[in-house]
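User: I'm putting together a teaching handout on how multi-component assemblies are represented. Below are the sequence lines for each component of a complex, exactly as they appear in our records. Could you produce the 3D structure of the whole assembly as structure tokens, so the students can see both representations side by side? Please keep the chain order the same as the input.
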Amino acid sequence: MTVEGKEFIQALREAGLKVTQQRVALLSILMESTDHPNAEEIYVRVRGLDDSVSLATVYRTLSTLEEAGLVQRLNLENEPARFEITPAAAHDHLVDVDTGQVIELPSEEMNRLRNDIAAKLGYEIVSIHSFVRARKIKTSP
Amino acid sequence: MTVEGKEFIQALREAGLKVTQQRVALLSILMESTDHPNAEEIYVRVRGLDDSVSLATVYRTLSTLEEAGLVQRLNLENEPARFEITPAAAHDHLVDVDTGQVIELPSEEMNRLRNDIAAKLGYEIVSIHSFVRARKIKTSP
DNA sequence: AACGTAAATGCGATCCATTCGCACCTGTCA
DNA sequence: TGACAGGTGCGAATGGATCGCATTTACGTT
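Assistant: Of course. Below is the structure of the complete assembly, with chains in the same order as your input.
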């Protein structure tokens, strides 16, 4: 399930969820965030649109949306979880160990490989949780 | 860096770490654990060998050993981190969503692919954090 | 358009995995 | 064997995330 344009209201309905102003605010913030914010950051940004939203609701809504498949949770290490709208094209993530920046990696090929390996063991994949920590290679010092 | 047999004492020395009875106890427990235990579970098992070890030391030692590359931390979701001796052959993990069991997946090919993708973007991989949640396929219902 | 109900929310309290502060111990190397 | 950096135990603290509960709200039904 993917959200594009302003159809996230419809996406909420299809997921059997009530369309509340808090959810709409959160989703629209998430749509325009390309930096994989965490709950606290999302909370601050959402307050800019609607100062009635509580942090508890941000957490609850993110979990609800994750369960509905509208949102993806990134559990990196030693930092609060980050979130993104479920992307149309699946991708893994690369975390720059020096800057903390998160970069999206194309991963159709990896997914195929993962599926094959899992299938060989008699499993079907439910969800993928994969990232690498990496360092930019210095080309000319 | 990998630990085999009883050479973990030497491995500690090589890492510039003091060889304390707590560390030896923890490493030997970890060597004989194939089920990816978490800190609490490791604590209980280590107490069986040496009841002077504290939970704080288990956490500190695991972090120290991880930093030294002797131990690998698995951050699964919604549960405390699990640990394993750094395996000789790199592998990803599969978590059975029904049983919680952790299965090791061969992943040389995946690692090659990951390296290629990262290299193409000018990065060298520092560490890999990858697991899939999966469900056993029913063959005959 | 008002109603009834289940679902959502805000607030503050709470949980719990992990880390910290600090006084005391112990490897290690001279 | 003595000095000292590094390691440890204990209990307190931290901090991300969740919960309990009273109140509000969305939305299908009159």
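A couple of points students might notice: Residues 91-134 of chain A form a domain with the Dna Ligase; domain 1 fold (CATH 3.30.1490.190). The longest helix of chain A spans residues 55-67.
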